[in-house]
Amino acid sequence: MSTKFTTVYAGHADLPDRGQNATPANERRYSNEHLATVFDKTETIAKKMDALAFDILWLAEHHFQHEGYECMPNDLMLAEQVMPAFKAGRP
Hints:
91 residues
């Protein structure tokens, strides 16, 4: 029986064009403002996970990801931001 529940969020920005006719990933260039939306999204995910009694949120740290995939440059600082989203800060 499962007793711990986890998920991973690697920090993808919303991609307005995707699919076969989309801009190729290597040619995408998003603004810093667009890439920074992952921080609010991470906090929203953390709050939902807390409401559903998840135990662990894994994060993926990557640098200079201008194409919109995995664009969280500092997981330690991000964890500091989203930790208050967890009501009791459960271990």
